[in-house]
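SEQUENCE WITH STRUCTURE:
===
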Amino acid sequence: MLAAPYFTIESFESLNSHELYAIMRLRNEVFVVEQNCIFQDADNRDQSSFHLMYWQGENLLAYCRLLPRGLAYAEMSIGRVVSAPSARKSGVGKKLIAKAIEYCHEQFGKGPIRIGAQLYLLRFYASFGFREVGAIYLEDGIEHIEMVL
């Protein structure tokens, strides 16, 4: 029987080696290998962010980082949103974003949240109340659009 999935949230300093490895492995699996993007994932923003993880046992099902105001945008932000290929179509992405919005407000206070969303996920983020701002742009060869909640 599978263990019930659960969330953890940690500052960078509080991450243990198992958590950090699982995060970097999942981000590389999806962003570098699956999406075929050669980019510098280690961007010096992780150290100032909170890391939201959705686990089932030892398996990291989904992850994102929560960035304080002024780190990526003037507003607080959610970034590096990723779900394990094996967990897709199970609702983990919806659970992750709902919890990320909640934790952003807990960690950084009330206020707008800005994201740089991959364009194909526009309707997904809009379902949480995010609205498009600005023009479509290319980042690492993938169309993105900024959105604000």
In short: The helical segments are 17-34, 92-108, 122-126. Residues 6-113 form a domain with the Aminopeptidase fold (CATH 3.40.630.30).
